[in-house]
Specification:
Blueprint: E1 9-12, H1 18-21, E2 29-34, E3 44-48, H2 55-70, E4 74-77, H3 83-93, E5 98-101, H4 115-123, E6 127-130, H5 142-152, E7 157-160, H6 168-178, E8 183-185, H7 196-203, E9 208-209, H8 214-217, H9 235-246, H10 251-258, H11 262-274, E10 278-281, E11 284-287
Parallel strand pairs: 3-4, 3-7, 4-5, 5-6, 7-8, 8-9
Antiparallel strand pairs: 1-2, 2-6, 10-11
Helix pairs in contact: 2-3, 5-6, 10-11
Length: 290
């Protein structure tokens, strides 16, 4: 727990970022660890979502985060399981800055698995912040109360990646609307319980539908990486990648589409896996980093 070596500081309302000063029930002070820097909050985007993050939710973050970090956005989230944790982690992996808002005190690690993440946020110039005293244990009411600050620190807006119908993510989205901020929601499968909330926000026009990060940054960023549809790839690999871009498939389904035997298709997929082009999960083949 190297993070415990960082001193706990206090910042008063007069020194808050402008976007936070103006929220309803604004706290009088915040406790924090890290390097409080006003530049952190010049372009801040809040990302929230389900604690039961699906593979789809992870892929949305993998698709959006390179553009968001490349455009200098600070990512604000709530440090909890699922989308919160993945948002912080992915941002840090890409060299971005992130701010975690806790539902308890700074000395109360929730969840316990985020010990290393706490350290990484602080060591990379980010901040861990709360309105509660250092030993305050999170409660059922402290997380919803915390959400007004999660939304309040954003000035770019709030992005809801996944959410159930009864979730803190919808509370954060409501706070965002009350605060007059942009709220975006990613559409999800209509069969998924963790997409019910985001689809509801879109259907009721409580959030703008978002399908690419450039809608948020208003800039299409070209991420420098090898083009996976490189002309040097064998024909069968290209065909498989085109199919997987639409949806994941089993080896059986790919074989039938290619009109090849399973052993031949399996060898092709193995070579693609070694080339970091595809991955297998629960019997299905998924395209990586499209």
């Amino acid at each position: 727990m190297r993070w415990k070596q960082w001193p706990i500081e206090i910042i008063k309302k007069a020194d808050f970022p402008e976007q936070l000063k103006n929220i309803r029930n604004c706290p009088k002070l915040l406790y924090y660890r890290g390097e409080w820097n006003d530049k952190l909050f010049k372009k801040a985007l809040t990302i929230v979502g389900s604690r039961r993050m699906s593979r789809y939710g992870r892929e949305v973050l993998e698709k959006f985060m390179p553009n968001l970090t490349a455009n200098g956005l600070t990512i604000v989230s709530g440090f909890m399981y699922g989308i919160d944790t993945e948002s912080h982690r992915k941002c840090l992996e890409l060299g971005g800055k992130t701010v975690a808002v806790l539902g308890g005190g700074l000395d109360v690690l929730t969840p316990a698995e985020n010990d290393n993440l706490y350290d990484q946020i602080l060591s990379t110039g980010g901040v861990v912040v709360t309105e509660y005293e250092k030993d305050f244990q999170p409660t059922l009411w402290s997380f919803p109360q915390r959400d007004r600050i999660v939304a309040g620190l954003a000035n770019v807006g709030i992005l809801v990646v996944e959410a159930g119908m009864k979730s803190g993510s919808l509370i954060t989205a409501r706070y965002g609307r009350e605060q007059g901020k942009n709220v975006w929601a990613g559409p999800g499968p209509i069969t998924s319980s963790v997409s019910e909330g985001t689809n509801y926000l879109i259907k009721e026009r409580l959030a703008k539908i978002v399908i690419e990060a450039s809608q948020i940054t208003e800039k299409k960023t070209v991420i420098s990486q090898e083009n996976i549809f490189d002309n040097n790839l064998p024909v069968d690999q290209k065909k498989i990648m085109v199919m997987l871009k639409i949806e994941p498939m089993t080896v059986d389904e790919i074989s039938r589409s290619l009109k090849k035997n399973i052993s031949e298709t399996g060898l092709t997929i193995s070579l693609m896996s070694l080339g970091d082009l595809v991955t297998e999960e629960n019997g299905k083949i998924y395209l990586k980093k499209v």
